[in-house]
Amino acid sequence: MSSDNCKRICLWSGPRNISTALMYSFAQRPDTLVFDEPLYGHYLKNTKAKEYHPGADEVLASMETDGEKVIQMMMGNHSKEVVFFKNMCHHLLNLKTSFMRSVYNVILTRDPAEVIPSFAKEIENPSMIDIGFETQVNLLNLLQEMGADVLVIDSNTILKDPEQELRKLCKNTGIPFYNEMLSWEKGARPEDGIWAKYWYKNVHNSNGFQPYVAKNVELENRLIPLYDASMFFYEKLIASSKV
Description:
243 residues; alpha/beta; Rossmann fold; 5-stranded parallel sheet; 5 strands; 12% strand; globular
């Protein structure tokens, strides 16, 4: 299929969100290919994150680490009408962003009180770069300045009413909604990155979006400054999601 006939959706998420579940949802569509964090190798190669991300050497050996080549792949020809790229926003590191005018960009965010404690179970001392809230705000500003298509979604709205929110997302991106997007079989998917064994346990045990349950998590004192800083950016994102 020529690139001109292909609808590309780029999800720009932070970690410990429902980005993998959303990728699984899109993978149920008969017209869609999904790609799991294609820029992760580029990010690890060019940052100190490779020193503390679980399985970093294995990840680097498993995928393309030249970000410009990855973008060429994303913008190239694909075999289906819709292509869904699940990305972490901080993986877009020192790369040309002009391609983002030709894709539909979705920024997926989540309450820092739910992100930070979960992430800290895997990465003991997370930074603002690791969890992505400031990066998402910077990305949103960039996309708006360049006139690119962009939608901000709080993951909790999807969990509270998956069908309604997925219908809205499909309408905004100009593609039909399929009921198949609401559920999937438990277990791993062939599109999973090699890092799935470290991060995807919950979604592998699911067969659909899990009902939203508010979490009463008491933050460790060491994480409170990061939480306070993150809330500043999260509130900016939420304000944009309601426009």
